[in-house]
Every structure is written in structure tokens, then in C-alpha cells.
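[Q] Does anyone have a clean C-alpha cell version of this?
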Amino acid sequence: MSLYNIIKRPLLTEKTTLQHEFANQVAFEVSRDANKVQIKESVEKSFKVSVLHVRTINIKGKSKRLGRHMGKRPNWKKAIITLKEGDKIEYFEGA
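[A] Here you go.
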């Protein structure tokens, strides 16, 4: 697996914004078969920052109903990365 295929997208919610401001943590949706070591290497090489700690959460997809048919959203994996003091990842630098 390529290091650039591990991180799928950043998670921008109210909670992750507060974590970014106060705890120097960022959250990403990552590949389901990636482990913590691969996630750490990918973030360090992609964003040129130092990672102190990686926490991962497997999130179960919700069951949804469309009329009389039931369906399910896919399962996915979230990674919360704690960065070294002084390092930052800016999502929208010019916005």
C-alpha cells in the first residue's frame, strides 16, 4: 500500500476543530486496512510534521432506509493524530 493512499480525507467537524486548536490534534479518515505505524509514516511524509501519538477508531456504518428497502452505509476508520508542539497542519491556508 502506498503512503499516499492511506489518508483519504481530513475530518472537519466542530469537535475536530476544537481538538486542533487546544490539543494540537488532527483527524483523518484513513484506509481500513492501515495500521498505526503506516498512518504515522504517511502523515509525517505527506505534511512534514512530527507525530507523537496515533489513535484509531473503527466506525460502523449506519443502517438507512429508503422507502421499504433497507441499506447500510460502509464502515470506515478514523485516525486522531497528536502532533509535536509547534507543528501544524493547515487545511485552508488562504481561505
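[Q] Thanks! Anything notable?
[A] The chain has a mean pLDDT of 93.
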